[in-house]
């Protein structure tokens, strides 16, 4: 074994350059979605394209290959070893796609997104169909370049949830689906319904903002390492561990969007803010997967934010910010109303019980597409059939159906399952957490520090040092199990709907 | 002459890369001064350093040298020709400094700025002195590398106001100084003084913001290509022609800062927003010099914003936004108060009449320093002597004297004269403009379009296609002449102070 100290030093310099490009790109994106003046967008897109190309060049450079080869089995430093692994995977996956094909694909992506927008506006799937066909073809091709063991779709899943396969999903999803639809039946049959009307009313933006800032502060979001801004499609973004920004959207006639949206993005941000500083400027300094990220946002949004304990301790605070109209609503009515279950056409408007059903529809369709079992042209019909089967409703148009999500227009196949996985992870984490502390009591007394610190200790700090299923196993001592989500939902909704 | 079409195409690609880095750097700076969370600053500084280094590499690359050599005398395209000139100058100036010296200098700069801040806080010049000595030495060395004809200081002046020399300044400054001090004498002797008390009072930030946004809109600042944000030290910044941002600062007990500050930065922004779009993505797509830039900001701030005509047409508007306390102040008292002349220690707080005297003090001292005629250690004493001579007051401490400005700590010698030059240019432009239209009538009727369009036609559109003195000559038909500034000030202040 040779002395690799100097080589590691040079390797770290290269990683710093990558981080610098990543921060510049992240800042450009954040600005484009929150601050940029209208006419600045065109030039900015070119700037982002240029910086992304430079980053890509570094990730696939001969220099990078050299570091990987030399350091791979020769470093004693655990962080360097994991970093090399991450870089190697990036390198291999990127190099396997011929440069020309990748460039064509990038152009197809941006064209497709524009066409999808038009198609959605006009609710005309045929406009989007030829583009989607090409996107599916490219993704099949890429999946074959990347390779897989059992199912071609696994190669795509790997981009978002490494380690999770169709085999896993096909084990957990059907049982989850049956449980959810049976819960949904009971809810539909119940005569004890929450009254969503109690949440209706004008809630000024400035008051919503003040309330959401207060909640973020209480969650332990560090404002000296972040900030909250307004946007159209809310997101959290990490520029670096010490600059993790949250965005939200205020609807003055529907305060739920800002409140739960901010708690959700705040959950993502807590993850990124609490990564071990020793990982800074390496590609490990971010959440390990989409699913684990979503477990953090959904834990805070649903298991904390939509819980009875949370509102028992924060309802007075809410009233301090809320206008007159809300002051006379009893706590119990309020709690029930924010947890109304009602099948809806649009995924991002779904309640927490029906949400996973939306995901499964997308998963089943895209898996079949990539496996060549169905054709793109059949998607609208199949979509509506599955909506009828799982949710009992059929969208009146493709705009509210197959055309609603942006993901496929960007070629993002394999992404959707992360949302449901994250939810199951969250429930499983919640189960373990409850064995170690009385979570409801802590929430009910507004003491979030212990909860947040537990997640930092078990999840946040590792960044990409651990794979998603490794985290699940290390934290809970078990493999992924949908039972915890079903138990949580059953307990909660049998209470609310009294069945 | 060979066919250079394809080479020009490649050259333009290189320029686009430069522009992309410049936009990324500008955005990072804007964010650092307006939005960044406290803990994000450290990492961001590294990102900016990295991007600046990449930009510097492009500007001094062999590729750049190749394009300069091939295209220099071989292009028929006027924009390409001027761009090559600009690139060549950049290339030559950068290449003349040995890389090691440049790196040492950059480190010295950032260290010196921190030391200067400490020295200023403690009002202890001796802390700063050794750093300033080194900065002066480096600047002398660089000036010798760059070369000059008559005075070594000219090599530094060239960085900010190409074409202007100490010879020019030594022609215009003494006469200007005599006129200003004699005007100041008359003002001091006058018994008819404005009453600044009428401007005192609480003015809520949100109201100030609404008023300044309204004024910017009326000036013709394009909000679809820009935005207004809050900062500590206001500035305007161009990310590209279609994204030119303005910042301001609100002091609730002194609304003048935000109002005149925003008009000033708005003047800078109008320049950058109205550059010929054909220059986009070339290094010509920005203001031609610090002085011409300052002519635009000062024209709007002083010749428009502090004029009687402006307040005659905008005083009702002001009152719409202003709190009760200001409603009873008569227009004439208000106008006189915003134009109070009073020698002050701090340059950036100076009124428009004494402002150039502050500049001359700095010019005379830095010219003598660079020429080795005085020593750094003698600066505090010399500073105070000149303050006494020109303004009749002596700062109580170096904090309010020689240590007040950041410029020297960044090694920016040769910058200060631009402020006074810009003011003289503005007066000279104003004189010409008045021959073509009744400027006061237009201002008095709130019609700024013709004025702005005149500046776009004669100044803005050219970006760096014309040198500063070329613009002055083309617009006014004359060489630089301080007379117009003296005439303007004499007329205005003999009215206000009745002498």
From TrEMBL, chains A, B:
Output the GO biological process annotations, alphabetical, semicolon-separated: proteolysis
- Its EC number is 3.4.17.19
Q: How is the cofactor bound?
A: Binds 1 zinc ion per subunit.
Q: Name one GO molecular function term.
A: zinc ion binding
Reaction catalyzed: Release of a C-terminal amino acid with broad specificity, except for -Pro
Q: Which residues bind Zn(2+)?
A: 264, 268, 294
Catalytic residues in the record: 265 (proton donor/acceptor)
Identify the InterPro entries for this entry.
Peptidase_M32_Taq
The Swiss-Prot or TrEMBL record lists the needed cofactor(s) as: Zn(2+)
In terms of superkingdom, the source organism counts as Bacteria
Pfam families assigned: Peptidase_M32
Keywords recorded for this protein, A-Z? Carboxypeptidase, Hydrolase, Metal-binding, Metalloprotease, Protease, Zinc
Judged by the first EC level, this protein's enzyme class is hydrolase
| Function according to Swiss-Prot or TrEMBL | Broad specificity carboxypetidase that releases amino acids sequentially from the C-terminus, including neutral, aromatic, polar and basic residues.
Q: Which family does it belong to?
A: Belongs to the peptidase M32 family.
According to UniProt, the name of this protein is Metal-dependent carboxypeptidase
Which species is this UniProt entry from?
Answer: Oceanobacillus jordanicus
